[in-house]
Amino acid sequence: MSTEAHAAEGATGYIIHHLTPLHFGEGFWTLHLDTLFFSAVLGGLFVWFFKMAADKATAGVPGLVQNFAEMLIEFVDNQVKDSFHGHSKLIAPLALTIFCWVFLWNFMDLFPVDIFPLIGSIMGIEYLRVVPSTDLNATFAMSISVFFLIIFYSIKIKGPWGFAKELMFQPFGPWLLPFNLLLKLVEEIAKPISLALRLFGNLYAGELIFILIALLPWYIQPVLSFPWAIFHILIITLQAFIFMVLTIVYLSMAHEDH
Amino acid sequence: MSINATLIGQMITFALLVWFTMKYIWPPLFDSLEERKKKIADGLAAAEKGQEQIILAEKKAIGVIKEAKEQSSEIVTLAQKRANEIVEESKDTAKKEGERLLLAAKAQIEQEMQQAKEGLRQQVADLALNAAEQILNAEIDKAKHQDIITKVSKQLS
């Protein structure tokens, strides 16, 4: 949908243009430069902000930055404590990273749809899609990483045999082994797929609606884009939250020994 | 919208971010939170302790005041008692002094009376002797009847 797309004119062309990433390379070895660039920049922003807070962290009266960082830390920590009953040095920071990073990705959605492509076109960049969560690669990269962690912790906590037993003998006992195995595999594989597709679907649809609104005459646009943007503030936070909570839940399931 | 190598790049970025958060961001912030929690808890505990101490001190103060009151009333009672004693003592002393003075006066009166009696007797004796002398002067020798006069004078006393 890339080369012939930008040839298309009118509304369809506009939409396709906005949803086409800046890419480099061919076939599987294609890189979506915009996704990589913006997610890295946003990740850097997240890390920079929290590092600043962490460097100045004191047990005394916190500053504004520290206060905000601590609010998020406390929020994430409460979520982790609610569903995860064990000790892990990884899960809470992982959840914080997921929440903040996904939130920042999604936040890019609230910028007017034409601003970044306009700046890009001035700088000679033909395609620019600024919301990393509208790229399946970004959402899948995160959910597959989480999936690897699920597998890793399942094997680490239950042992290879314990994990295999769980796959084979649950939920219906050893007599229905193939059925159990099939069910369990589907269940496990559904986790990363649902995580990635949920985030991608929500944000892709949201972005699409912003683009559609942008196609309308200018005097109608604010009436529609304003409420949609407000509603979207809820959606982007909610999606980041859901991704984080489900990650915690999946990982705590991986830690549970039956 | 195909899956491609971007996925790998994103995974690497994600791993780096998680590692950095785990290593440099979460621990100091979380520790400062925990430390502050502890500080606040300690502060609250100290405040509670202070309150308890105040209550204890108040109780103690009340006890001390009560004791002081008891002591002072005891002192007052003792003083009153002592004052009564002193009054009684002085009364006694005065009484005794009075009695003594009375006795002395009586003795003096007695003595003076005795002296007056003695004087009177001497005078009476002298008068009687004078009269008798005059009566007897004519006929009786003074030396001859000295013995009788002394006898009479002795009877007078």
Description of the molecule:
With 258 residues, chain A is mostly helical. Chain A is globular and about 65 Å long. Helices cover 72% and strands 2% of the residues of chain A. In chain A, a hairpin with a 6-residue loop joins strand 1 and strand 2. In chain A, helix 1 (10-18) crosses helix 7 (177-215) and helix 2 (33-55) packs across helix 4. With 157 residues, chain B is mostly helical. Helix content of chain B is 93%, strand content 0%. Chain B is built from two helices and no strands. Chain B has helices spanning 6-136, 142-156. In chain B, helix 1 runs antiparallel to helix 2. Chain A binds chain B through residues 1, 25, 27-32, 35-36, 39-40, 43, 46-47, 50-51, 53-55, 57-60, 62, 66, 69-70, 73-74, 77, 89-90, 92-94, 96-97, 101, 132, 135-138, 140-142, 144-145, and chain B through 1-11, 13-18, 20-22, 24-26, 28-33, 35-36, 38-39.
Question: Which features does this protein show?
Answer:
heterodimer; A: 258 residues; mainly alpha; two-stranded antiparallel ribbon; 2 strands; 2% strand; globular; disordered N terminus; B: 157 residues; 2 helices; 0% strand; rod-shaped
